[in-house]
């Protein structure tokens, strides 16, 4: 086989392999996902533990798929393993849910951890979202004191 034909054959093989590897990523992106969208880790004002201040600390989770997704048993944790577990709850198609640290009444758009102190560190932390099976869905980290939130 000539060198030109060998090079062309190698190029075709690489292109075919690349297409196979890239196809699932494009298909996945086209169908959307459930993912961490934003962490508001430093609520306004002094951290004195009022419920209003605790609820101004939150994580938003977005569903960019065309169908509702049951989050029953899914967990949201920080680096210190503070854990929030979703009860029976479905995040609607193209919807976002805000998980507040403090106390409140759960709705379709807002969930509450019912904690009496802050979860998210004001300087750096990592949020991890897992399915009920323990499979990691998404991770979002921040390391900053210059802003109060992180878009994931």
UniProtKB/TrEMBL annotation:
Pfam families registered for this protein in UniProt: LTD
Keywords tagged on the record: Signal
**Among its keywords, does the record have Signal?**
yes
The LTD domain is annotated at 21-144
Does Signal count among this protein's keywords?
Answer: yes
Q: Where is the signal peptide?
A: 1-29
What name does UniProt use for this protein?
A: Lamin Tail Domain
């Amino acid at each position: 086989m000539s060198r030109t034909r060998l090079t062309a054959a190698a190029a075709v093989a690489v292109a075919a392999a690349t297409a196979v590897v890239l196809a699932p990523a494009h298909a996945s992106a086209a169908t959307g996902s459930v993912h961490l969208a934003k962490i508001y880790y430093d609520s306004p004002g002094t951290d004195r533990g009022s419920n209003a201040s605790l609820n101004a600390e939150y994580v938003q989770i977005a569903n960019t798929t065309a169908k509702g997704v049951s989050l029953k048993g899914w967990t949201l944790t920080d680096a210190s393993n503070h854990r929030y577990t979703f009860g029976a709850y479905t995040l609607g198609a193209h919807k976002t849910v805000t998980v507040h640290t403090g106390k409140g009444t759960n709705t379709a758009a807002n969930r509450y951890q019912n904690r009496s102190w802050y979860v998210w560190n004001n300087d750096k932390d990592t949020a991890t979202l897992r399915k009920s099976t323990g499979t990691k869905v998404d991770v979002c980290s921040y390391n900053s004191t210059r802003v109060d939130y992180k878009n994931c």
